[in-house]
């Protein structure tokens, strides 16, 4: 394959090294941030340029989504504006549809290309960092596409919060027991981090919210966690996983292990154990899969659809292509067994970005590259306010200490001092004042009120009889 046109030469440059970062999530943003720092002089002199292609103008710190859904953190503090953080990079809001690495071009669709009707554009590059992240892994469950709710974006998290409170409003006002029971039944599918933390935080929030309803009690709420395997939260170890099950069941949460969701058609969740639950809420958090753009590249992938990478975070057998995070299958050089890969989690991702950026710059400058090596430290998970589990460096924690460690760890990892300060301030205020229980469901349909006002007026009654009497209010006489 061709080499980059210009390995950061000195002097006047007409054709700089073009670095393309596909994805503006955790890996994409941090990689671009490290490159921005390492190539500071090159970017200033025009010897290098960095382009970040991302569907959203912000990076979402996903570990805080459950707290945002529970109202502990404002949604805008869970995201980081890319244009502010990556001020030396060119930000393109769009989606990479395909990558032809042999020709060093990426096919990009933007909002502008849709408006112009010209179709996607070809974006040339010299060095490629592919970090599109992952998407929800769904199964062909009848009714899931119609009634399922995801939990991977800040929009989904806030939408779910509004939805839960809205269901409580429905249950409080209906006279139909069937509608009430379905509104107060919440089914979560998936016993990993996303499912357990989302359920724990929202159950905590909803239980608190019942105090403001005259006819809903905490025991009226029915929460069900469905997990296809025999354990939940495998990252925190078997003992802590069993403790989590006991903790959730002690809160009257129905945990169903070795159970699958067979159907949710007609707003009825049918489980593989034969149980049927009329419900208006099915939250799907049963794993993720690589972003579709990986299948539209000429880069090598493994059987799971992730890019085959070396320990140096370069794509295997390919020059000038790099990857990390969910999209990359990176060998774990610290593991005792051969062939083991790094887990696709934030702990590895944030450390991989630094090594990736350093290796990319080293390759441009002709210096030797280094392997990515990080021994897994452990995991922490929140189960609601003041409740959590942790397994860190061989030590097992539960309850308040684990919850405190969860908050401290993620506060240290959320990008930018601005976000750290805002999140800490919100946590402090939340300890001094009552929890917010407001639902802003109208955010999902912001023009509904205006459309009603601007629409045609309602039809007038056709005759006096339809008004229930004569013009002077009396009954008609013969």
TrEMBL record:
This is NAD(P)/FAD-dependent oxidoreductase. Residues 18-349 form the FAD/NAD(P)-binding domain. The keyword Repressor does not apply. It holds the Pfam family Pyr_redox_2. GO terms for molecular function: NADH dehydrogenase activity. It comes from the Bacteria. The lineage of its organism: Bacteria, Bacillati, Actinomycetota, Actinomycetes, Kitasatosporales. Gene3D superfamilies: 3.50.50.100. The keyword NAD applies. SUPFAM superfamilies: FAD/NAD(P)-binding domain. Signal peptide: none annotated. Residues 449-478 are annotated as: Disordered. Belongs to the NADH dehydrogenase family. Keywords: FAD, Flavoprotein, NAD, Oxidoreductase.
